[in-house]
Structures are given as structure tokens and as C-alpha cells.
Amino acid sequence: MIPEPHGGRLVDLRASTAELERREGELRDLAKVTPFVDQLYDAEKIGIGAYSPLEGFMDAATLESVTRSGKLPNGLPWPMPIYFPVPTGAAGRPVEELKGGDEVAVLDARGQAVALLRIDEKFRLDSAAIARSAYGTVDPKHPNVADIQRHGEMAWGGRITLLRRLDESRQGSEPDPAEMREEFRRRKWETVAAYQCRNPPHTAHEYLQRVTLEREEIDGLLIHPVVGRLKKGDYRPEVILAAYNALVSHYYPADRVIVRPLGITMRYAGPKAALFLAIVRKNFGCAAYIVGRDQAGVGAFYEPYACHRIFDEYDIGITPLRYEESFYCRRCGGMASSKTCAHGPEARLDTSQTRIRTSLAKGDAIPVELLRPEVAEILRRPDVLLTT
């Protein structure tokens, strides 16, 4: 069965056309802030229900509960702090004057209003506690920790009203959770597995997807790449989508697999991110979630299988499909894992993204055992990596 949204209700905080028309003049008089892009993605995802049951940015009590226990104050598992650092300035009114009860317009980098934030509370952030809770470290070498340390000391908590989707979401044809659930119903898919990714696919990724599709209880697979804010050195979002669309169109049955983008900031939080990303996919209607090795990790900050174990600590109402590292074994003549292959590392082809990127940059041929030729062609294009 398609699961209920996290918390039992799919949140929808989008302003109606009538409300937009009614408040058009009022918007001109509101204080306006342009936050870091993470808060724009979060506002959109709160508004469309991807972060259900959240209805806004966390207040002090909610943030403290999540930081301390990985749960909302009502006991519902929620591992990731979603908060709104007070911007350094506002248009139309000094930011220092804004307080509880005020409403501000949240603008994107183009100056377009994306959401309204009703300030319920202004409070001081414990940035170190947030970093330790979500990322397990205060080391500024961790990209998300570095972001946290650049924020100010204060935050606003409050409910949002979403005025419009982000341009990036519309261009990528990104569905909202209600639309995705309706697509599953149209296809008569009851048990859908979600595949989280932020890289183009190589054959080890494909192996996990195919093993999942072979499971009797799985009706379909949603490949749901994160295409929002990624870190320097990651593949560009449009490259990730193009690579997956090439894979699916050439190698998968059209009635079993869907590729759709997910515009959020990538949180490289290892186990906490795996749990959070599974909750988001539950809100999109997925009943199962693929968990590979070192999901959402970065550098050496997380033990590779901590992302498996966290699903034993928190019951979020979605079935984790836990897989060990897979590889191509020359002696077996196919994809395998330590559960199915008796041969040592010398028999294996290295499927690491670093190795593949290096080979592509040199113009080396990539074995089809590692990368589909249609995907390799896309990855050989210039400027496929993010430089900032």
C-alpha cells in the first residue's frame, strides 16, 4: 500500500490564486529578505508537503528536540534540523526591528517572492549542537558544517505560505508529493521503492536497482536524484538527470521505473541524511527505500554502514532495503557483492566515482562492465562538474 505521509497528513501551504491576488498590494509593503539558497529549497519543500508534517521553520523548542533526540516534540522521528537563520539585512525595514508576529517576504536571488514567513519566534542558535547532532562533527572541512558556521547567531521560527515553486523545480519538471502519489495510483503501483542518488549511474548503482525490481513485493522504482544545491566537485544537476534518463530509456522497462528530480540542498550527513531522505520519499508515496553503502557520506566522516543501522533505531514507517557494496567480479563474470562472491579485491573492477571521473578526464575507455556507453557519452561532455 502507498504509505500515509509522515505524521498522517500531507501538508499543502501553497497560496491560492485568490489569496495571491488579494495580497498583491500587501506584499509590496512587507519587509523582504533574501536568505541562503538552502532556506529557499526548504521553504518550497515545506510548502508542497515534501517535509510533512512540518508547516514552517522550526522554533527553539522543536529545534532543541530534534537536536537532542532526533524526534519532533510529539515523538515523531525527524533527524534533520530545518531552521531559518536571520539574514543580515532586509529591504523595507531593518532586520533588527522584525519580531514575533511580523511577516516577511522571502525572495530568491532574482528578487522574486517565493514564500511568506510569519515570525512566531526569534531565538539564539546553538550552531555547535546543530552540527554535532546532524553531522556528527564541528569540523569546518565538512561542507555542511562550514555552511552552519557562516550563519549568524539568531533564527526565526514560524509558519510559511508558499507563493510559487522555484524556477529550478519547474524547469526540471519536478512533481510535488501529491502529484507523485497520483502517478503511482495511475500506474497501479502500491509498493514503490525509492532510489536516492546525487551522482550519475554506474553499473553498481544499476545492480542495486535491478535487484530491487526483482523483488516480488516491489511494483515500481522511483529514481529520485537530488538536483538542488550540491557541493563543489559533484556532477551538475542537469548531467545527473540526463545520465539517468539515458539509462532508463535504453535499459529499463518503461512500466517499472520513473526518474524524477528532487530539488533540495544535499545534506552530507551520512546516517541522519539517509533517514531524512527516506522520510521525504515516504511523503512522495514510497513504501520502501534503498540504502547502499555510505549513503549521503562525504570524506571519511561516517562509518560506511551506519546508514543501515540507523533504521533500527528509528521506525519511520518505510521499509529499508539494505544492500552491501557491489562490484564487478572478473572471475564471476558479473556484478556481485561479498554475499555472493568468493573472490578477493584483485578480481574486482573499481566502480568508484573518483576512478571513473579520472578515466573520463584522461579520455580513457571505460569498460561497459562499469559504465553504460550512453552514460559515458554524457559524462565525457565538457563542464560536467560543479566548480563552485
List the helices and strands and how they pair.
Blueprint lengths: L16 H13 L1 E3 L3 H12 L7 E2 L2 H10 L14 E2 L17 E5 L5 E6 L2 E4 L2 H9 L7 H8 L3 E9 L4 H5 L5 H11 L4 E6 L5 H12 L5 E6 L11 H15 L5 E3 L11 H13 L4 E4 L14 H8 L5 E4 L3 E4 L4 E4 L10 E2 L3 H10 L10 H7 L9
Parallel strand pairs: 1-4, 8-9, 8-11, 9-10, 11-12
Antiparallel strand pairs: 2-7, 3-7, 4-5, 5-7, 6-7, 13-14, 13-15
Helix pairs in contact: 4-5, 9-13, 10-11
Instruction: Give the mean pLDDT.
Output: 93
- Rg: 21 Å
Number of helices: 13
Beta fraction of the residues? 15-25%
The parts where pLDDT drops under 50 for at least 5 residues are: none
Shape: globular
- CATH topology group of the largest domain: Rossmann fold
**Strand tally:** 15
Characterization of this structure:
With 388 residues, the chain is of the alpha/beta class. The chain folds into two domains: 154 residues, Sulfate adenylyltransferase, CATH 3.10.400.10; 207 residues, 3-Layer(aba) Sandwich (Rossmann fold), CATH 3.40.50. 34% of the residues lie in helices and 16% in strands. It has 13 helices and 15 strands. The strands form three sheets. Strands 1, 2, 3, 4, 5, 6 and 7 form a seven-stranded mixed sheet that branches. It has a five-stranded parallel sheet with strand order 10-9-8-11-12, with helices on both faces. A three-stranded antiparallel sheet has the order 14-13-15, covered by helices on one side. Strand 9, helix 9 and strand 10 form a beta-alpha-beta unit. Helix 4 packs antiparallel against helix 5 and helix 10 packs across helix 11. The chain is globular, with a radius of gyration of 21 Å.
